[in-house]
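ok so i was messing around last nite and threw this chain in just to see what happens. nothing serious, just curious
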Amino acid sequence: APNAQLIVSRKGAESIEGYYHKSWNYTVVKTGDRINIGQNELVFIEASMIHWPDSMFTYLTGHNILMSNDAFGQHYATEYRFNDQVNNEELYDEAIKYYANIITPFSKLAARKIDEILAMNLPIDIIAPSHGVIWRDNPIQIVEKYIEWTKQAPEKKALILFDTMWDATRKMAEAISDGLTSEGVGNKLINVAITDRNDIVTEIFKAKAIIIGSPTVNNGYLATMAPIMEDIRGMKFQNKIGAAFGSYGWSGESVKLIEEHLEKSGIAKAADGYRAKWQPTPADLEKCRELGKSMASAVKAD
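result:
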């Protein structure tokens, strides 16, 4: 389409040329600009960093459709197009997974953008994101969920992430879980080596306490932990507490390194970590249960 006119945000013009090294027929628009397309108009709302610098929403008057780009979407492949045609529980599982993995680092920006859109008092009958199903049945329900999620107020529960070599760290993880459960705090154990990273990030987003365990290998933690640790840092999770544990045979640095990484990621240490040499003894496992109880108290503290 050599005569097509491209409507882009200011950052959009820059990024398109950066990708394709060509200058096409651009019209650059900003928030509040309108283009008449006959009976209706397109209204533009810049949405930089939700979640790309060039992101922009487009509102179609007359039909009251908000085309929201990356916001309010899901990585959800379904044979149906609309939210009232799919299982609502499954849809929200996919929506929060998308938010946790894509939008979390930009939560403050997302909150401000939602306030801006609501202040425009646009009638919205449909929200059509770039990914996943289209919201036509009570479309504002996903906006309300985003308002909730942008606050990053986690559930009062704990997540235990671990990997293990000879089951020593697994046994410690299970003992920590027992301690949490005994104090009435819900918790989930996840072996990072066999669990999808997107699912792990979603569970991190939901939980208040993140308890991470790894044996020591080559003076560090297991390589399977590294991507999750980087996700924790990069996602900029808020309002979380953490702790570490692990087994070792020789040098035993993994617990200290996990604690240091959590601190750099803005996750406050709520209890001292615990190390067990070789296979954990009954006394070691009791210490792990005590760690779980301490974390339970911290979860319930506020």
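not much to say yet. The longest strand covers residues 155-162.
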